[in-house]
Design goal:
Strands 1, 2, 3, 4, 5, 6, 7, 8 and 9 form a nine-stranded mixed β-sheet that branches. The chain starts with a strand and ends with a strand. The protein has helices spanning 8-17, 57-64, 91-97, 100-103, 133-147; strands at 2-3, 20-26, 32-38, 41-42, 48-53, 67-74, 77-88, 115-129, 154-159. The longest helix has 15 residues, at 133-147. The chain is built from five helices and nine strands.
Amino acid sequence: MTETTLTQQDVVERLRRAELVMLTTALPDGTLLSHPMAVQGVTEDADVWFFVGLHGGQADALRGDPHVNLAVAEAGSWLSVAGRARFVEDRSVVEQLWNDGAGAYFPGGPDDPDLGLLEVSGDSAQFWGLPGGKVAGLAQIVKSRVLGDRPAGGTDTTEL
């Protein structure tokens, strides 16, 4: 596998394109637990905002251990961001990020008492991918399977 160059801006762009990511947390016994999460916003520093329920296993796990991982997959590419999560009490940010999709999970709207605002600050990111984007990546995967070859691609890690 060849090396690619991954920058913080690459991470920001990939996170902004992702509608959903998998957020992995660790339970007190060390069990890893992943949930699909809708991305509400991404800053230039690669901080990612989510709405999350304040009650239940996921919120408890985040309060117990803030270390998390975000995973994003597209055809032919994968991004993994290791970081720390924190709950933020800022209703102005909630109002700014609020959207109709969030209303399906928080019927009380931006003032729903179960609505929490979560910020994930990345420490590092790792990318694996095939050159050429989604369509080219899919074509390379299919071609390599038919021919029995290994697809071309690259990997890189960056600090955030």
